[in-house]
Amino acid sequence: MLENSSFRQGIRDSALIILAVAFFGTAYGVLALSAGFSPWLTIFSSVVIVSGAAQFAMVGLLPAGPVAVLVAAVGLGLRHVPMSAALAGIIGPRPLGTRLRLSFVLVDETFGLTVRAANSGVEDLVAYKTAADLMLYSSFVGGTIVGAWFGGAIDPQVVGIGVLFPLLFLGIAAPMIRTRRDWIVVGLTVATSLVAASILPPAWQITTAAIAASIGGMAVGE
To answer: Are residues 131 and 105 in the same domain?
Structure first.
């Protein structure tokens, strides 16, 4: 696989955003510590959950109890249903082991990279997504380790971590915006997010925006 040109392209494309993802992981580590997690539990949660949105919701909703955390996790996780269906359609039939491996790191960043790779004619999408998954997974977990072990000296409110999240996502999305459809999807996502934030519970805001943007993107040609 290391000789696969699609694998190497996946590494190159994901290299554009791994620093932002690593910072995201570091921010999670800091916030998890401030919420009462031990460093080891903080790191373990990033290793097994592999969902930054769900992890941030988890540490934010812990004071509200396990039901609130569960509802948030389900609401945020629903966006993976259309994402999985889209990837299955562009990657095609694969052995069960390959599908399970690809589904383990089903995050917004690698999803976007893989869809763009499919549209640009990348030959081996399995190798491409595998490379992107490895890059982003290792950078997020690595960032979490940094935040977990050194974040005890950082006050999240003082450094304004919450304010940095929108800027971080803009930085991650920017390299992927190329076509007219991309700009329309971005516009729909921003508009839907603003509306959802004003009328829906936090657990459903990301899922609603993602579904609306996906429908809009499918309805618009390149």
So the answer is: yes
